Every structure is written in C-alpha cells, then in structure tokens.
Amino acid sequence: MAKTAKKTSSKKPAVAPSSGLPIDIGISAKDRAAVVAELSRTLADTYTLYLMTHNFHWNVTGPMFSTLHQLFMTQYTETWQALDAIAERIRALGHYAPGTYAEYARLSSIAEPAAVPSAEDMLRMLVDGNEAVARTARRAFQCADAVNDQPTADLLTQRLDVHEKNAWMLRSLLA
Ligand SMILES: [Fe+2]
C-alpha cells in the first residue's frame, strides 16, 4: 500500500505580513509570524487531506462502496468548511494565507496517492492523513499556547478533536 507519511518538512513557510494598519492585539509581530508559520502548515495539511478524502469519495469501489462513499462525504464536507476558519485566522494575525497548490505541496506533510488505491488502502491512507493533520495541529497549538494566542489555540483544539475522531472512525472500519 502507498505510504502517506512524508517526513516532516524543515522548510519554513513564507509568512510575509500583509500591508495595512499596524496590529496591536498583545501578541508581538515575531510571535504572530511564528504562529502563522504553524497555521500555514496546518492549512496545507488540511487542504491536502480534504482533497484526498473527496478523491476517495469519487473513486472508491467494492462491497463497502455505499458506506465509504457516504462517510468520506461527511468528512470532506467538514474539512472543507474548516479551511476557511484556519485561513481567516492567519489573516486576523496580519499575514496572507497560502492559497495555491504549489504552496500546499511545499508545506504539507501528507503524501498524495499516485494511483487509485483499494478501498482498504484508502482507509489506511485517510487514517494516516488525519493523524498527520493532528500532529501538525498539535505542534501549532503548542506555538499558539506559548504566545498566549487563545483564538488560535481554541481553533486548533477543535481541529484536533475532529481529526482524532475521524481517524478513530476510519480505523474502526479496518478492525
Ligand atoms: Fe458526491
């Protein structure tokens, strides 16, 4: 089966602040840039997982078709909606959000499938993908918590809850 775990990238996301009035919310520019770098990785992982889940909704085959087609739709719909909250938090912190496939490919820790996997391999890849988002979001949470950024920490706590639950549901189908 295809492996989804790319080794953690050491590349730094580009986090040039957007122009406009100065921001004075009690988090220094340096700390906001550090949080944005971690949020950008979380956004890239989340987008990559969203696309993989939608891809598998389209292409799954076999006796589990109906169950998996429906479950994947539930998960990609939720994930799609979460992208907006993550990107808009980056904007509220004074930076531009990454929004191109090139940036997501560079920042994401999730390897994409090279072909259409079997239904079982789709489940394994989605377990791995949800766990990868959880690892990235957890690291981002540590950064946000360390600089007293409660809204980001709250958002990431919600993402951790969802992706750990998704991984449990997908894992349960393989038991
Ligand atoms: Fe559909």
Give your account of this protein's structure:
This protein has a single domain, classed as Ferritin, CATH 1.20.1260. The chain is an all-alpha fold and 175 residues long. The chain has helices at 29-59, 65-92, 101-107, 119-146, 150-172. Residues 57, 73 line the site of fe (ii) ion.
Task: Describe the structure concisely.
The protein is mainly alpha-helical and 175 residues long.
Task: Pick out its properties.
175 residues, mainly alpha, Ferritin, elongated, binds fe (ii) ion
Note the topology.
Layout: H1 29-59, H2 65-92, H3 101-107, H4 119-146, H5 150-172
The chain binds fe (ii) ion.
Inertia-based shape: elongated
Order of helices and strands: HHHHH
Structural class: mainly alpha
Radius of gyration: 17 Å
β-sheet strand percentage: under 5%
Task: Find the CATH superfamily.
Answer: Ferritin, core subunit, four-helix bundle
Give the averaged pLDDT, no decimals: 93
**Contiguous runs where pLDDT drops below 50 for at least 5 residues:** none
**Helix count, per DSSP?**
5
* Heteromolecules bound: fe (ii) ion
**Total beta-strand segments:** 0
Helix proportion range: 55-70%
